[in-house]
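REQUEST
  id: r-88c1
  op: predict_structure
  target: Cytochrome P450 4d2-like
  payload:
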Amino acid sequence: MLTWLLLVLATVAFVLILLTMYWCYVNYNYFFKMKNLPGPSPLPILGNALYFKELDGFLNTLLKLKSKYGSPFKITIGFQYPWVIISDSKFMTFFLSSNKYITKSQDYNFFRSWLGDGLLTSTGKQWKIHRKILTPAFHFDILEKFLDVFEKNVEIMLNRWRNEIGTTNFDVFPFVRLLTLDIICETALRTEINAQIDNNSDYVRSVQLLNRILMDRALSLFLWHDSIYMHSDHSIRERSAVKIINSLTDSVIKRRKEEIENQWDSHVEDSGDERKLAFLDLLLQAEADGERLSDISIRDEVNTFMFEGHDTTASAISFSLYNISQHPEVQKKIVEELNTISNKGNNSGHFTYTDLQEMKYLEAVIKETLRMYPPVPLFGRLATEDILYGNQ
Ligand code: HEM
Ligand SMILES: *[C@@H]1O[C@H](CO)[C@@H](O)[C@H](O)[C@H]1NC(C)=O
Ligand SMILES: *[C@@H]1O[C@H](CO)[C@@H](O)[C@H](O)[C@H]1NC(C)=O
Ligand SMILES: *[C@@H]1O[C@H](CO)[C@@H](O)[C@H](O)[C@H]1NC(C)=O
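RESPONSE
  id: r-88c1
  status: 200
  body:
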């Protein structure tokens, strides 16, 4: 009996020692290269994981640590590479304006089953090539071509609010999220999915499910490790959602390719509708120009835009509306500004692209909301070499 007990204890001790050694190896930089950085002291193996015990507290914990240690500070969680958290504008400018530090941090792997090697998750040479192809899609002027799409879809949302909701208090976010999904599909893919009219289609449900799952995973330390995550409920649902999304994405790409081929075959000139050079066409055209994007690459970029383009904007719009609703005096000023602009022209309620540029006060309100409630509160890079900043 005693020998068994001793044997078990010895094995446990041995495993713990091995884990600790491995942990020290992973955290080598934490102890030596970052020794001058402030930060909470870690426990062996767990690191600072105990700080993140409360599940809803991930961001709040980071904020608390930030107010204690300033910027930058270091933390380490389990066997992840240690983190240096930067939140001051000087260091961020230094970091983000460098074209050297473009390797995404390991957390981005969570997104890979959906977004593959799209812009958000990719790195190095592939990122540079794709970024060059897609940069025109980020140009401000693109927005002008789609004002009617914005207007049409917003009108659908407002009608639903008038007819279904009346004057009660309600959460705008679920509605705005369908709005932005409709808009990103219609503008980037030129495909109408009518999510606002039917929010129950497989595609819409899958997109919303994946957003939820990815957020849950990012904020819950238990699900970080692939070998644990693989066996979770989340992972099974994630895989089936990705399948559904990909089948829609693939069919949109296929249809557009056929349209383009038919155009060439029959030598029909493009109808002059310039907005056809939307995002999807930039990808397909790049292929035609010999830059060779595989079908999978194109699908990854399309999925990336669907993801990046709708939840972020929905969050920004919802927080703006919320904050405006809490401040009637701000709301009044916004309405005054809009009235002034619409009285100048005789457009009877249709704002033009130039009108948008005159909405200075509204713009300031939205920017302040983005500062207060950033839709993407953190993002990360992996240091592939020593980074010297100041005297650190
Ligand atoms: C308020 C709205 C938005 C916010 C706050 C936001 C925020 C961000 C942030 C912080 C990043 C950097 C992530 C990183 O480098 O790790 C990013 C990247 C990206 N965003 Fe957005 N975004 C918004 C809207 C959009 C929209 C509407 C689209 C597409 C139509 C979009 C497409 C992308 C793409 C493709 C990337 C990856 C770019 C690259 O790495 O080259 N985003 N976004
Ligand atoms: C989603 O669809 C259901 C059923 O049609 C409807 O009751 C609900 O209000 C819709 N939700 C949103 C946010 O549109
Ligand atoms: C709205 O934003 C302001 C900053 O512009 C902030 O001080 C305030 O707390 C926010 N109000 C609400 C109700 O969210
Ligand atoms: C109002 O409309 C008329 C005719 O449609 C146009 O000639 C005029 O320039 C417009 N005025 C303004 C200020 O836009």
